[in-house]
């Protein structure tokens, strides 16, 4: 998903060409594509992503034209990468996020994917995912996506409890989820479900019911994220007015531990702090590429891209985005070239969250010295440390941010 606020950075050139650093070592990095579909039928009360309902769009931007506009950026991306000296690399992963990608006709999503395959090709067995709301798919649309080359669908389930879904402004009913999961399976797609815990008014029993329901569908993958209340959202305003209770960190911890216990018992294993998969092959390879700092191009308004420590981002509003592409210009409006220290900090932050752990050799001396104290505090696994890796314990996963702060220099 793409955040609503764009970072500060330097202006991006109109032609989109990248600095030389982006190409350095690229032949050894995987390459993926993210496609942002910025449309939703209803804006959820907790959502801070760059999304729009049909009534919020103006100035010529439309869902009907979006597929063609996205294909324009795919063509531009291929030209920019080649002109910037990056090697030809087939796509290892493609991920359609949003918003609700499946609000677009399946034919439009298939068309965007076809243009991407035409531009770069796919590695054998490439992962191609779309996010979806359970009420935005049909058996026919899912089969069309599978036939077009999609391999995986991630359903925004969030909860199985009606009053929790109501607080989150979700539009689907709980009974729709198992239907959508079965349709996806019938189409030959792998299935992931996303859950959110810590919604105001959600009891521990509510959360346990939701996790057990999700597990009963036997998905290949589950993501479980703690609800974060972002400024500017409808839910933040309701909380300020006292209409819903505030977030409770202890409640979050209890629910995380319960989810991990239930998922482990059901045969899923954590591979990143908020993600569990049935087998290693079921891990979300696209997200792993983010956590390992591989290269990816982000298509769509507000989408972010990365290559070799160079990051850039597109115009936020769909109208401005479309206008730039229509004028033959890059939609990128800003970028930053990360220095070695920033790249080191991000590497430690992201890799520490993985079940494969962070190699001790990647740490500076101060970080390696901190590991003994983290082991003593029960946050890092001693056996893994002896084999040269920083691996979070269950307690360490609850305090992952604090672990990272101790691993990084002052």
Automatic annotation (TrEMBL):
<dbReference type="InterPro" id="IPR013785">
    <property type="entry name" value="Aldolase_TIM"/>
</dbReference>
<dbReference type="InterPro" id="IPR004559">
    <property type="entry name" value="HemW-like"/>
</dbReference>
<dbReference type="InterPro" id="IPR007197">
    <property type="entry name" value="rSAM"/>
</dbReference>
<dbReference type="InterPro" id="IPR006638">
    <property type="entry name" value="Elp3/MiaA/NifB-like_rSAM"/>
</dbReference>
<dbReference type="GO" id="GO:0005737">
    <property type="term" value="C:cytoplasm"/>
</dbReference>
<dbReference type="GO" id="GO:0046872">
    <property type="term" value="F:metal ion binding"/>
</dbReference>
<keyword id="KW-0408">Iron</keyword>
<keyword id="KW-0963">Cytoplasm</keyword>
<keyword id="KW-0411">Iron-sulfur</keyword>
<protein>
    <recommendedName>
        <fullName>Heme chaperone HemW</fullName>
    </recommendedName>
</protein>
<keyword id="KW-0349">Heme</keyword>
<dbReference type="Pfam" id="PF04055">
    <property type="entry name" value="Radical_SAM"/>
</dbReference>
<dbReference type="InterPro" id="IPR058240">
    <property type="entry name" value="rSAM_sf"/>
</dbReference>
<keyword id="KW-0143">Chaperone</keyword>
<dbReference type="GO" id="GO:0051539">
    <property type="term" value="F:4 iron, 4 sulfur cluster binding"/>
</dbReference>
<comment type="similarity">
    <text>Belongs to the anaerobic coproporphyrinogen-III oxidase family. HemW subfamily.</text>
</comment>
<comment type="function">
    <text>Probably acts as a heme chaperone, transferring heme to an unknown acceptor. Binds one molecule of heme per monomer, possibly covalently. Binds 1 [4Fe-4S] cluster. The cluster is coordinated with 3 cysteines and an exchangeable S-adenosyl-L-methionine.</text>
</comment>
<dbReference type="GO" id="GO:0004109">
    <property type="term" value="F:coproporphyrinogen oxidase activity"/>
</dbReference>
<feature type="domain" description="Radical SAM core">
    <location>
        <begin position="25"/>
        <end position="272"/>
    </location>
</feature>
<keyword id="KW-0949">S-adenosyl-L-methionine</keyword>
<keyword id="KW-0004">4Fe-4S</keyword>
<dbReference type="GO" id="GO:0006779">
    <property type="term" value="P:porphyrin-containing compound biosynthetic process"/>
</dbReference>
<keyword id="KW-0479">Metal-binding</keyword>
<dbReference type="InterPro" id="IPR034505">
    <property type="entry name" value="Coproporphyrinogen-III_oxidase"/>
</dbReference>
């Amino acid at each position: 998903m793409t955040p609503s606020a764009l970072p500060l950075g330097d202006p991006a050139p109109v032609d989109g060409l990248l600095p030389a650093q982006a190409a350095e070592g690229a032949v050894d990095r995987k390459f993926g594509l993210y496609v942002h579909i910025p449309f939703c039928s209803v804006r959820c009360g907790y959502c801070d992503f760059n999304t729009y309902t049909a009534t919020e769009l103006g100035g010529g931007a439309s869902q009907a034209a979006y597929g063609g506009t996205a294909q324009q950026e795919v063509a531009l991306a291929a030209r920019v990468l080649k002109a910037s000296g990056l090697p030809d690399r087939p796509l290892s992963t493609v991920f359609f996020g949003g918003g609700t990608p499946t609000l677009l006709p399946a034919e439009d999503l298939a068309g965007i994917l076809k243009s991407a395959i035409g531009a770069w090709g796919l590695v054998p067995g490439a992962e191609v995912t779309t996010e979806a709301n359970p009420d935005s798919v049909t058996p026919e649309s899912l089969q069309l996506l599978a036939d077009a080359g999609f391999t995986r669908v991630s359903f925004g389930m969030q909860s199985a409890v009606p009053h929790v879904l109501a607080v989150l402004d979700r539009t689907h009913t709980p009974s729709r989820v198992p239907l959508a999961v079965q349709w996806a399976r019938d189409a030959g797609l792998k299935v992931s479900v996303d859950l959110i815990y810590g919604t105001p008014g959600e009891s521990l029993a509510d959360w346990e019911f939701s996790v057990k329901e999700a597990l009963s569908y036997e998905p290949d993958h589950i993501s479980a994220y703690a609800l974060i209340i972002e400024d500017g959202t409808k839910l933040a305003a309701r909380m300020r007015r006292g209409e819903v209770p505030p977030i409770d960190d202890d409640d979050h911890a209890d629910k995380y531990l319960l989810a991990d216990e239930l998922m482990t018992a059901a045969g899923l294993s954590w591979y990143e702090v908020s993600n569990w998969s049935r087998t290693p092959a079921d891990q979300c390879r696209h997200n792993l590429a983010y956590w390992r700092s591989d290269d990816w191009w982000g298509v769509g308004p507000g989408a972010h891209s990365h290559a070799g420590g160079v990051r850039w981002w597109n115009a936020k509003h769909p109208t401005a985005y479309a206008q730039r592409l229509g004028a033959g210009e890059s939609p990128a409006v800003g970028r930053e070239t990360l220095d070695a220290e920033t790249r080191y900090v991000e590497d430690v932050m992201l890799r520490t969250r993985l079940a494969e752990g962070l190699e001790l050799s990647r740490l500076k001396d101060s970080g390696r010295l901190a590991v003994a104290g983290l082991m003593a505090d029960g946050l890092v696994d001693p056996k893994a440390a002896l084999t040269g890796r920083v691996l979070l314990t269950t307690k360490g996963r609850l305090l992952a941010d604090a672990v990272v702060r101790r691993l990084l220099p002052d």
